[in-house]
Design a protein that fits this description.
heterotrimer; A mainly alpha; B alpha+beta; C alpha/beta; A: mainly alpha; C: alpha/beta; six-stranded mixed sheet; five-stranded antiparallel sheet
Amino acid sequence: MDALKLNTIWVLAKRELRSTVYGVGIYLAILISLIISSVILQNYLRAVSRDRMLITASPLSYPLFIATTICAIYLALASVTSIARDKDMQTLEVLFYGPVDHTSYILSKYLKGLLSYIFIILFLAVYFAVASITSNLGLSVKLPGVLLLSLFLTSCVITFGIFVSTLTESVRASILLFIGIVGGLIAIHVTHGMLIKMEEANLSPPLIYLRNTLSIINAGVKWASPFYYLTEGMEAASIGSVAKYTLSAVSSIIYSIIALVLSILVITKKGVKKTAGE
Amino acid sequence: MVLEEYAIWILSQMRRVFISLILIVITIGSGWAQAPVMEEQMVYGLRLFNGKGYATSFCPRSEDTIYIIASSENVLLPKMTLVYYWPITRKLQAGFKTLNEKVEGTLEIIQDGKVIRNLKRRAYTFYSAKGWYAETSEIILNEKAKEKYGEYKQAMDRQYKLTKEYYDRQRDYRKQMEVFFAKIKERQKSGMMPEQYGRIPVPKEPVPPAPSKFYVQEPREEYIVNLPVGRYEIRLRAPDGTIVEGSEKKIVSFTYRRSGKIGYEIIPAKRWTMPETSSDPAEIIYLEGKNTLYFRPYIQTEYNHLYYSKLLDPQNEGHSELWRWVNIEQIEKGALHLIKNGKVVSRIQEKPYYVQHVPGAELGYTIVGYDKEKFPVSGPSLVGYKVEFEPGKGGHQIQLVDASGKVAPGSLRELRAIDVGKPWELYITSVVLPFIVGAPIFLWRRRKLK
Amino acid sequence: MIKTVNLGKEYGDFRAVRDLSINLREGEIYGFLGPNGAGKTTTILMILSILRPTMGHIYLFGEQLNGSRAEIRSRIGVVSEKQYFYPEMTMREYLDFFGELYQVRNRRQRIGELAERVELANVLDKRVGAFSRGMQQKVGFVRALLHEPELLILDEPVSGLDPMGIRQVRGLIEEENKRGKTVFISSHLLSEIEKLCDRVAIMNNGRLLAEDRMENLVRRLTEESELDIELAEGKPGAIDELEGLDFINGVSIDGKFLRVKVKTDQDYRLDVVQTLISQGHVPVGIQVRSMSFEEAFVTITKENISLLAKVDS
């Protein structure tokens, strides 16, 4: 990748990051995630207070997981609407008058997402440091590792959002498609989870058929869902499995690369000009 | 364009989608509401060595693998029973009380396609030196099982005889007490003041006999499986030479990864019936306020999480990439050091304690030091190291030191007092953090654009 | 600079551009004319690799364009018909962003200079989204010139500008051309094309109808011109003598004003005057009315292709 391309990626990402930092959305997402973490932590502490004792290696992992998930959802929505918004405003075309091509454009979106998440992590790190001091829970040695892993996992969510954004022409369609896909994945996962826990003898034939079908679908689509990587990774961090942690990081990187490549292919095929009638 | 239209169509169909989802949930829910369906199956009852004693479970048809600890005696009990799904536990249950029919045959052990052993039923029993409720037990085989049971029966007969004598003495005691109270009443009636009663001997209550300290199960005959580390198959060959349907299973014989590290069972004074465990030195023990804790250190052995979970119950789930520590043997004789700021502030000795039920007290019980004379009937309720924890910033540590002064590996644990006093601090932090960064940026930007 | 060979773009059955072959030479101001829907913007987008051609080739700076070449586009400055901005940015931030994108050295200074030239220096720190249409167009110009491109592609550059603004932009274009920039202007404002362009290409229905210097185009298309002659006094018989001449296509009289249509193969003014004088009429004034470029343009795009074909042969 030459210097011009690297410069293009950096300049585009910087502009978007500035726009994000100047806006309200990111702070709102941080606020919501921290408040919910506070609720969880408070319930945690009350449970300790009630039972007088709690034994755990990393009490902050679960609230951190929740905070990370909320911020990941915000980043996903931001990514999902990003390309469509550029097309809506027609600023995308203006960029392509210059030294911007499809690859540098997509990579800049990705870089901006990562930088946004690093910005968010700073808040999370400070919050959990303060929380550990005020509650005397103490910072676990696992916490930096969890934060680092969360970067890989959020990368999946960001690239998924970028890919969805390349498929549509408007912000509204992007959001609808994102909600549709995520809702569908969750529905499959939850229904499948309910059905597999039931003994076959207790299921009617249509439900058995549904269960078998969902098993096949779930086995396939879970690899396409960024939230699968998020939950697997957080589980790896919370149970302290180094092998699973490493696998999680590597699979997240592979997922991100595939999503980025697909995004570049789609946007190259579809073009950057908003089609008439949109 | 196409995708947007499709997305809008989906949303327009939401009402139908929602109703369909409701119907699915109701259908699934109705599956839950039905009475459990019983199915007759050939299962293996299991009494498997778990490192310190024997776990009881069964292996239904739906589970194809049995996990055992290598080089240990394990009992397999093939039988016909009724199996049903119990939604509350989300597991299959065996209706042994309804149907419990032994399946006859020879148990074949196969490895690499070859039958390496043919097992017949053998006599066995379980012996617990510390009684029925003890965690540890051992298996005794063949003639020795019968001998041990004989010893137990003799002990039980003796126990019975002593108990009978005790009840006889109780009866006499009650009669003596009646006489005693009659004499008191008589003196009362005669107008005497209590100090004038004189000496009336108080009958001594008989002491019940100490219960038998050991327990031996009645010997039975089943298949005893002891295999080195490896993967095997088993099947039951019926007397007519056929393979019993449902009897083919895999066996995974595994061993521990590490052994010798220290874990703790921690009994909080305020809820002594609900102990906690700490296996991993990375774990921190969080406490609220002043606490009295009783530490019982154990030697731990580390097993694969999946294998061990499945050993306890083949229907359990586990993680093959994880490991878990299992308490094997309680360590006695040593000292527990309480450390603060790197200095040993207290050296605690192991002592026996007794849980004394106290009507009217807040807890209903109190834990006191065990005194054989005060509590001749029962033994100590627990033996451990008593730690009095005082809250304060930072943390304490505990560490086990053996009789020679050597620190037991993996015995270090951190104790921290959590502070739940000010919940608003967390919420304030949640709001302040984004605000103190976002607000200045937002205002600066607005000023710049104006 | 820009050369297209049989360039075409199809959308299903619809052919937006077909068999387009143009050649823009270095240093010239090249006009690209056509009514709305002729295919001008589609052509520009293909040149910029924003749209992929269905057929043909494009050569930019002598190199054939295969796919998107970001580094080639660094040598081009583009002003589109409408300007699109990031609404939260000020003019300075917007230009600084593009300056950094194009790796412009001393970009702060350059922004200042260009803003002065277009008289927008006093609004550099205002939100560009709040500018008027004309101001936005000027910002677009500044953005296009920031990185000193070799080639300027302007699509309806004076759209939305008032006469002062149009003059400013015209001055800018001429100035930049004098500094060596090649300019490609796509417009339907014939007056501006007429004033600025060295050569013109005319498109209609996706097809190139003509590419030549303007005076050549006009001359190729006009068969006659009109002479307006004022006589000292209107006498009868002025028409009759003139109508007999073979280079006269038509004569009409209104009082003392004669309108004579003459062929354009040569200058027949002297002949007409001499004929009138010989008849005793006294011409006191004579004016030539030839077809304007606008009339020539209208003539061409009324699908008068046979005329062009006849002239070419």
